[in-house]
Design goal:
This protein is 3% helix and 64% strand. The protein has 147 residues and is mostly beta strands. It has a ten-stranded antiparallel β-sheet with strand order 6-5-4-3-2-1-10-9-8-7. It is globular and about 40 Å long.
Amino acid sequence: MEVFRPVPDVLAHLAGRWRVERVVRDPTSGDGGRFRGTTLFSPLDGGGLLHEESGTFTWQGVDRPAERTLRFLPGLVPGTADVRFADGRPFHDLDLRTGRHTAGHPCAADLYRGEFTVRDADHWRTVWRVGGPAKDLLLTTDYARVG
């Protein structure tokens, strides 16, 4: 049985810079790719964190620059977060008080199911399974604190 590290305040825990390594697999086609880069969680005016990820995504041997921005806002329950896309649309909730959380996000006809786990103070992981008529993907992302 895997043991997870409880995080009483997800926003305080995530603040700072993280090294990111993501493996992307398409179980149907067997194709795969990899993202390598960094994520910076910096304070937002009014509370919460701005999540800025940038790096290189390699798919079928071709490297491309990649980036994304999310907003991690204080959740309804103290210590949790309400994760939103850069434009403010809802993405998912995040509650790591037990060290593990699952979330879902419908995207058109596809469904994203995410599992978040905290290994220790400096390492955490997300695993997203995406299924539906447009996508069949498994995305596993490992984060390691920098500095």
